[in-house]
Amino acid sequence: MGSNKPIWVTGLMSGTSLDGVDAACLLTNGVDIIKFGSSAYRPYSAVEREMLQNVLGKWPAASGLEPAAALILAAHLEAVAQVPAGELIGFHGQTLSHDPQNFRTHQLGDGSELARRAGVAVAWDFRSEDVAQGGQGAPLAPIYHWALARYKQMQEPVAIVNLGGVGNITWVDARLPPEQGLLAFDTGPANAPLNDFILKTTGQAYDADGALAASGRVDTQVVASFMRHPYFARPAPKSLDRDGFGDMIGLVAQLSAADGAATLTAICVAAVAASLALMPVRPKQMWISGGGRKNREMMRQLEMKLPTVVSDINAIGLDGDMLEAQAFAYLAARVARGLPTSFPATTAAKAPLCGGKISLP
Predict the structure, then answer these.
(1) Are residues 107 and 175 in the same domain?
(2) For the domain that residue 303 is a member of, what is the CATH number?
(3) Which residue of 295, 296, 328, 361 has the fewest C-beta atoms within 10 A of its own C-beta?
């Protein structure tokens, strides 16, 4: 796998929003995107989602992880079975805890067992080495964003925003090598606290189309108070745990369901807007990916608050649902070639390094 010949890789992603497993096929040599392939989605049931929520925050030595680990393995195998077999699988696992300040991160899932059961080599454990070397271990998609901007032949800096459970952003100038043309960091909370609030107050898994938030009023004092959190003053790069801001539902507990949804949506947007101040040059475009782009109220607020062109990434011909799964396919190819997967300006690692390891069937 050490050659620069393009290979078909299947990337797998189960994010902090706990909605399901994405699988996406990518033909790549670890530098260039040659072709996009098939994709599939294996959703979690309400019972499965609750099982995973119950183990969030746990570390490897904790008891009671076995059922959740078995679920992760089974769900990922089912996702893999829905797409054509490739030569390599990129397996992120399920993040339960992330604490880079204390040099630790925990993604539940055994890549060696996945390789054995799937009969395909698996690249996995992408974050541990970066964290061990003093990096944030996240975000890891920026090098793929650089490849996407090259694929789209961008001749100006752009920003790619992923609104999953946590928001993250990559500033990328594809005319430069990755060591010079990337800056990345987590912007702040995104769908996770909003989804948790919607589930608690309405019993629904998320705010479909942002309809509830659109019917409410933003409590601007809550938003302003939240944005004084020290995290937003920290320089980039920086990263967050899913629940890094504590009990965000408590921030809006005194509000109606509609006003609470509107306010949590506005917090996500304010965090993205604040990210512009950390960029070397204001991007001419912002491409929005992840589940947040399907929230019409969130997109409306982004378009209103951001002083640049804001686009759903699907509108420029890319797949916002599968971007992160594609990213781990691309990262797997880089691990196979021994190429860096993170950089000082993306995770604060001291030098470019290749995270991840490969398990053979």
Answers:
(1) no
(2) 3.30.420.40
(3) 361
Q: Are residues 305 and 202 in the same domain?
A: yes
Spatial distance between the Cα atoms of 313 and 123, rounded to a whole number of angstroms? 27
pLDDT tens sequence across 12-52: 999 877 889 999 999 999 999 999 999 999 999 999 999 99
DSSP-assigned states of every residue in 235-304 = PSS----TTTT--SGGGGTTS-HHHHHHHHHHHHHHHHHHGGGGSSS--SEEEEESGGGG-HHHHHHHHH
Judge whether 146 lies within some domain.
no
- Domain hosting 56: range is 7-138+322-359
Structure-token pair, residue 283: 């991007």
Q: Whole-prediction pTM value?
A: 0.90
What is the number of domains present in the chain? 2
Is 16 part of a structural domain of the chain?
yes
- The stretches in the chain having pLDDT less than 50 are none
Q: Which residues pair with 219 in a beta bridge?
A: none
